[in-house]
Design a protein that fits this description.
The complex is a heterodimer of chains A (498) and B (245).
Chain A lengths: L33 H6 L10 H15 L1 H9 L11 H6 L6 H16 L1 H5 L11 H10 L8 H5 L6 H14 L5 H12 L8 H19 L14 E4 L10 H15 L3 E2 L17 H18 L3 E4 L3 H15 L13 E2 H10 L15 E3 L3 H6 L8 H13 L30 H7 L1 H14 L3 E4 L2 H10 L10 E3 H8 L8
Parallel strand pairs in A: 1-2, 1-3, 3-4, 5-6, 6-7
Chain B lengths: L2 H30 L15 H14 L1 H6 L1 H21 L14 H27 L1 H6 L2 H19 L7 H13 L9 H16 L7 H6 L2 H4 L22
Chain lengths: 498, 245
């Protein structure tokens, strides 16, 4: 396990920390093994002429992604982003300042792709791609959760996520992959979901859930799997099938569908919403993973695709799915493709189909954590800012006690949970705990000021991350809840059908 | 023709070629490289008009920078505004007859005082590079040198108030460059220093971080319409992966 480390101090008035060089240079996730690498089409270990290959790959990506090229050229080194990253705030490592992180690649870009860098490397901060630089890449491009908070503040809109994705793609192409992401992608290709949960186990789990809900509510809520001709294909993160508090969210979706009389199904072929292809910057892998959803929708002959609570999944779904796996002209054209479960619930609230007993959530005083990829890389409801207003509206419809955290830490300025972007792995626990600091500070202030007891989220990674790191900040793991868990608690079910 | 005139005429043609061809080539490159995925940051406009408004606000007010850090915003906004005012004042050296609004007292006086503003802004930016540990960490020699270069341009330009040259002759020289009707350049030291520094700036522009100027217009997080669910955006290079299923 990871070496011992100290949980950062929760400060009453957070100030920008002073730099501590190489504070987290020792943090690197486990490297991917031969078998995981080759199943994704990457070399199994560092190739012989890796330097040359890496520069070639960079050149390839520079010609494919305008973002990468423009962002490597355009940085003014103005410093606006330097204090914006949660990992910088938690670790104080200068390479965790967004521009510091970018410069690890920008130096190499300048050296091999620009005139001044070729002739005057020292002058413009250009660096050779040495083994040390590669090690720094591996370490610090896996200390970026691709949350894009820096991109909101950058005067040019430079998005460090674009650069860290490219860096990971370059490293994969020379045989330096990350175990956590690549092993998981392999599982999805082979079995259908991140957890490697095969179809019979999944069916079994869902049956168990049906029994649980029947016991609790006396309503026969179904959790259908592979049911053809359903109205809705629900694609949800596999953590929803058994992790806490995720599963309570899944129960919430099922109750909503049940109560609204919408027929729905899960798919064993596409039993995973998350698309880790994005984390490693691989268009090919991302497309392959996205195609499963298209295939499942065709096979099951559904009319709509709905995504469960999952941040990065929703980014890929909202912003990329149509491009990667469209056109979805075989689905019902009256609905956007895909929809978010919050859009479904919100629509049903507006149509007065769902009714709630808000007092069912009175044992909680709630706040809401805007998950980074929902907040900064997607939207909801076809309106600007819908990704902020719709989840809050749902919470306030199903619960009485709600407060927002500090304005600088929510909506488009929200902080990542500390575990996004392919970093939700035990070998990076120190980073995860330290990166959670800004969110923990905002939450703890609200706990003190307003007596908040629980924080709701709509992202599987956020929920897993918080339920793990809360203990480091003297919070209980069940203080993180699923948004649809709140819906589930308060939804008045029609019991006649039993 | 004096040697100085021939030298500076040649240098200006050379620098202008680098600047304009270089910039045009960069813009061509940026335009040619596809943006294969939709990545606008919030608040993401849902129409092309919304995007135009967003870019306008970024270019004119530095809106994102304002939300990030007030001091850097203040210094850089003052500097860029002063740069614009100074540039407008200098149009009188390149137009014949001078456009009426350029010759207006407002533009000429504002352009003059802009030099002080510009220096104030630049010195502020320089100070933050030296004194803020985070900015000092990310600064390479070229970051300081570019600031020094522009400070020197503003300073030498301002010096001409006390070391005046024959303004009419300067104008004839530049209009002559534009119309290939060459005329003598006065060989006053301060003027020649000022012009040499400007030539240096023109040459480094397409090879430096000054590319942030065109870069902003090509930044996908800022220039994209949020319409990914209703419209596909398949890059040419991604089309080979398109399936027919």
């Amino acid at each position: 396990m990871a070496s011992k480390f100290e949980t950062p101090e929760v400060r009453k008035f957070p100030v920008i920390p002073k730099l501590e060089n190489s504070a987290t240079s020792h943090l690197s996730p486990f490297k991917s093994k031969q078998e995981f690498q080759s199943s994704l089409g990457y070399p199994g270990e560092l190739v012989e002429n890796w330097q040359e290959k890496a520069i070639d790959k960079m050149g390839d990506l520079l010609g494919k992604y305008r973002s990468l090229r423009v962002y490597l050229d355009s940085c003014i080194q103005c410093g606006a982003c330097t204090d914006k990253c949660h990992y910088y705030q938690g670790t104080k490592d200068p390479n965790n300042m967004p521009v510091g992180r970018q410069n690890l690649m920008r130096g190499v870009y300048r050296r091999y792709f620009t005139l001044p860098g070729k002739y005057f490397p020292k002058l413009v901060g250009a660096t050779d791609l040495t083994k040390e630089v590669l090690d720094d890449w591996y370490s610090y491009y896996h200390q970026c959760s691709q949350c894009r908070r820096c991109a909101v503040f950058c005067p040019i809109g430079i998005d460090t996520a674009e650069i860290s994705m490219a860096a990971r793609e370059v490293m994969d192409s020379i045989g330096v992959g990350q175990k956590y992401c690549n092993e998981i992608i392999g599982k999805v290709h082979k079995i259908g979901n991140n957890l490697g949960l095969p179809e019979p186990a999944l069916a079994d789990t869902l049956e168990g859930l049906e029994e649980d809900v029947l016991d609790d509510t006396e309503v026969d809520v179904k959790f259908p799997l592979d049911v053809k001709d359903s109205e809705v294909l629900l694609v949800t993160p596999s953590a929803d099938f058994f992790a806490e508090p995720h599963v309570d969210g899944l129960i919430g979706y099922a109750k909503v569908f049940h109560q609204a009389g919408i027929s729905w199904t899960l798919s064993s072929h596409a039993s995973e919403a998350a698309n880790f292809g994005m984390f490693i910057g691989s268009y090919d892998n991302m497309k392959k993973l996205a195609m499963r959803i298209r295939e499942a929708a065709l096979e099951l002959n559904v009319k709509r695709i709905v995504f469960g609570e999952c941040g990065h999944a929703w980014r890929v779904a909202y912003s990329f799915l149509n491009t990667l796996a469209g056109p979805f002209d075989f689905l019902d054209p009256r609905y956007p493709v895909p929809q978010h479960i919050c859009e479904i619930t919100n629509g049903l609230i507006d149509q007065n189909v769902l009714h709630f007993d808000k007092s069912a959530n009175d044992d909680m005083t709630l706040t809401y954590h805007d998950s980074c990829n929902v907040a900064r890389a997607s939207s909801m409801g076809g309106i600007m800012g819908g990704q902020f207003t719709i989840p809050r509206k749902i919470i306030q419809t199903v619960a009485n006690n709600f407060y927002d955290m500090d304005d600088e830490t929510i909506r488009e300025k929200t902080y990542c949970c500390g575990g996004g972007g392919g970093l939700l792995t035990d070998d990076l626990m120190e980073l995860r705990v330290k990166g959670a600091l800004p969110r923990m500070e905002a939450l703890k202030h609200l706990i003190e000021e307003k007596g908040v007891t629980h924080m709701a989220a709509i992202c599987a990674i956020c929920k897993s991350q918080f339920s793990k790191v809360f203990q480091y900040y003297d919070l209980e793991l069940d203080q993180i809840v699923s948004l649809h868990q709140l819906v589930s608690n308060a939804l008045i079910m029609n019991k006649k059908e039993v | 023709m004096s040697f100085v005139t021939i030298l500076y005429a040649a240098l200006f043609y050379f620098a202008a070629t680098i600047l304009f061809v270089g910039l045009a080539y960069r813009v061509y490159e940026y335009a040619k490289i596809p943006a294969p995925l939709k990545i606008p940051t919030p608040p993401a406009p849902m129409t092309q008009r919304g995007v135009a408004i967003r870019i306008f606000r970024e270019v004119v007010f530095f809106e994102s920078l304002f939300s990030a850090t007030k001091w850097t915003w203040l210094f850089s906004w003052i500097f860029h505004l002063a740069l614009l005012l100074a540039a407008l004042r200098h149009l009188k050296y390149f137009t014949d007859p001078v456009w009426f609004w350029v010759s207006s007292e407002l533009v000429q006086v504002a352009g003059h005082y802009a030099a002080y503003l510009m220096l104030a802004g630049l010195l502020g930016l320089f100070a933050r590079r030296v004194f803020v540990d985070r900015v000092r960490y990310i600064s390479s020699p070229s970051d300081y040198l570019i600031l020094v270069l522009i400070i020197a341009i503003a300073g030498s330009g301002l010096m001409m108030k006390w070391f005046p040259s024959d303004i009419l002759a300067i104008k004839l020289f530049f209009v002559g460059l534009l119309t290939f009707n060459f005329s003598e350049l006065p060989s006053d030291a301060v003027l020649l220093i000022h012009l040499s520094l400007v030539i240096a700036l023109m040459i480094i522009f397409p090879y430096s971080k000054l590319l942030h100027a065109p870069g902003l217009f090509f930044s996908p997080t800022r220039n994209q319409v949020d319409n990914a669910r209703s419209k596909r955006h398949v890059a040419d290079w991604a089309k080979r992966m398109e399936s027919t299923k």
